[in-house]
Amino acid sequence: MRRSLLTAAGLAVLALSFAAPASADLKPIKRVEPQYPAEAARAGTQGFVEVEFTVDPAGKVASVSVVNAKPARVFEQSAVRAVKQWEFAPGGGKGKVRLDFSL
Predict the structure, then answer these.
(1) Dmax over Cα atoms in the chain, in whole Å?
(2) For the whole prediction, is pTM greater than 0.90?
C-alpha cells in the first residue's frame, strides 16, 4: 500500500500543470518540478500555488514569494523549494507562475 501511494505521488508530480513565467524577458534554462507532498497525496489533496520570483542578472532565482495558495500551507514549501532551483538566461527580471498540484 505504501509503495503504491509513493508511486501515485510520483505520477502525480508528472501530472503537475505549469504556466510560463509572466515576464517575456525571462528565458528558462532549467526548471525543477516540485515534489508532491506525501501527506497530501495520501489524503488525495489537490490545489495550486501562485508565486512571484526575482531573477538576478546571472539568471539565478534570487527570491520567491507566495502570492496565493489553495489549500493554504499544503504545497507552498514544495513550490518555493522547486522555483528557487530554476535557472534563466542571464539578464534578470521578475516572473510569476502558478503551479497546479493534481493527482
Answers:
(1) 47
(2) no
Give the three-state DSSP class for 49.
strand
**Contact status, residue 98 vs residue 22, Cβ threshold 8 Å:** no
Element (H, E) at 40: helix 38-43
pLDDT tens-digit readout, 27-57: 999 999 999 999 999 999 999 999 999 999 9
Residue 64, φ and ψ in degrees, nearest 5: -135, 135
Contacting residues for 13 by C-beta, under 8 A, at least 6 apart: 33, 34, 35, 36
Say if residues 52 and 65 touch (Cβ distance below 8 Å): yes
CA distances from 82 to 13, 15, 18, 97 (A): 12, 15, 12, 12
Return the C-alpha torsion angle 76, 29, 17, 81, nearest 10: -10
CB within 8 A of 91, min separation 6: which ones? Answer: 25, 26, 27, 55, 57, 59
